[in-house]
Amino acid sequence: MPSLSPAIAEIRLAVRTALADMPEGSTVIVALSGGADSLALAAATAFEAPKLGLRAASLTVDHGLQEGSDAVASQAARAAAALGLDPLIVRVDVAGEGGPEAAAREARYGVLRDAAADVRAAAVLLGHTLDDQAETVLLGLARGSGATSLQGMAPVREDADGVRWVRPLLGVRRETTRAFCVASALTPWDDPHNRDERYARVRVRERVLPVLETELGPGIADALVRTAEQLREDAEAFDEMIHETIEDIVEHAEAGISASVAALAANPAALRNRIIRLVVDSEFGVSLTRTQTIEVARLVTDWNGQGPIDLPECSAVRRGGRIVFTASGR
């Protein structure tokens, strides 16, 4: 018998590991664009899922942003059916803030979330690779948005709607997914947007990472991903500490929520700032910038009688021994 391609073996193992804890008889959905990454993921899932007693389906979202997108979606669905997956295509209208790329992403995840809820899927599988993770970390570094962005994408994440998002290929290089497709006689679609240097991610992929590899030596992408993993471990430890602390120092207030000044002051700055961000996010559904967070923290650490601080959807003021967050307009 011919030996199994190393690329096929690597990706099948990654998928098998990701599916190992799924309940027998449940359904998993592969987000399938037709590109090499998602096509390799779909093929490996079609092979591994039945062996674990799982039903596997694919969902392809046609955003209609490019000419011929309907043909691309149909081709992806045919490939999924040939692999033994239950294929579904959904056409969505893209509209929203942040440009077409952000709007398309939001629409795509909305469709995937709805589909997962409809069939009570155990997970939605996404085809992000190690290279995607490295690019995400670099983009987060460029934005200066702190450790949360530098953690990159989580291998497994459950959202507020109970949908479980799983990325089996985060430890796999992009070149391996292409080798998988070649070895499996699969023809992936090459999205022209992936070569359009108007997009920051494409510039990172085509220009920044190659320069870093040349100037600093090989292994930059792997190093960035290791950094993301370490930061994620730290963040998880911080989150546990915050949730334990927050129960003792936070109280509901009229039209808002409040936190003890003394307790905030007793915590190190890293914990204090995270508590402030978590309180505002959980109560008002907004994310504070670092500048906004520091301004609120000054109500604790540098109190000189300053008045209320206007924040998105709310305001913060020191009142007695507490920092009170109140919804805007109250």
From TrEMBL:
UniProtKB keywords: ATP-binding, Coiled coil, Cytoplasm, Ligase, Nucleotide-binding, tRNA processing
EC number assigned by the record: 6.3.4.19
Compartments, as annotated in UniProt: Cytoplasm
Highest taxon in the source lineage: Bacteria
Binding annotation for ATP: 33-38
MF terms in GO: tRNA(Ile)-lysidine synthase activity
Domain tRNA(Ile)-lysidine/2-thiocytidine synthase N-terminal, residue spans: 28-206
Tagged with keyword Cell inner membrane: no
Catalysed reactions listed for this entry: cytidine(34) in tRNA(Ile2) + L-lysine + ATP = lysidine(34) in tRNA(Ile2) + AMP + diphosphate + H(+)
Keyword tRNA processing recorded: yes
Pfam families with a match to the protein in the record: ATP_bind_3 (PF01171), TilS (PF09179)
Top-level EC class as recorded in UniProt: ligase
Domain tRNA(Ile)-lysidine synthase substrate-binding: 260-323
InterPro entries, alphabetized: Rossmann-like_a/b/a_fold, TilS/TtcA_N, tRNA_Ile_lys_synt, tRNA_Ile_lys_synt_N, tRNA_Ile_lys_synt_subst-bd
Regions crossing the membrane: none
Coiled-coil annotated residue ranges, if any: 221-248
Functional description taken from the UniProt entry: Ligates lysine onto the cytidine present at position 34 of the AUA codon-specific tRNA(Ile) that contains the anticodon CAU, in an ATP-dependent manner. Cytidine is converted to lysidine, thus changing the amino acid specificity of the tRNA from methionine to isoleucine.
Domain remark text: The N-terminal region contains the highly conserved SGGXDS motif, predicted to be a P-loop motif involved in ATP binding.
Family: Belongs to the tRNA(Ile)-lysidine synthase family.
Protein's recorded name: tRNA(Ile)-lysidine synthase
Naturally occurring in which organism (per UniProt): Microbacterium aurugineum
